[in-house]
Amino acid sequence: MTPRKCQQSIAFCFRGIMERGAAFVLLEPVDYVDEQAIHKRMTSCGFKNISITDVTKECKAAESAFYSDHNLRVDSSICYYVLINASL
Question: Which strands sit side by side in the sheet containing 80-87, from one edge to the other?
Fold first, then answer.
């Protein structure tokens, strides 16, 4: 694929993603869970139908299992995690 075709393909995909009503699912590390602040920030960026779920416990368990399965010695992350569902 030529660089020009690649750029056109990326631009087409991006336009499709950013269409009105497009759904987004984000897993975000945060310093603390403040649903109101997150909701306000997302709304100010034009997002709608915003749902925020604290998934810290599940993420920490997955992180621990990953480290164990791969015999890694890594300090656990010190943040919280939120799952954000939203649409444009």
Answer: 23-30, 80-87, 48-54
Ramachandran angles phi, psi of 60, nearest 5°:
-65, -40
Residues 37-84 have pLDDT tens digits of: 999 999 998 889 999 999 999 999 999 999 999 998 888 789 999 999
Pair type for strands 48-54 and 80-87? antiparallel
Q: How many whole angstroms separate alpha carbon 52 and alpha carbon 33?
A: 9
Residues 39 and 84: beta-carbon distance below 8 Å: no
Q: How many residues can be counted in the chain?
A: 88
In angstroms, the CA 35 to CA 21 distance is 22
- CB count within 10 Å of CB 33 equals 15
pLDDT for residue 15 is more than 60: no
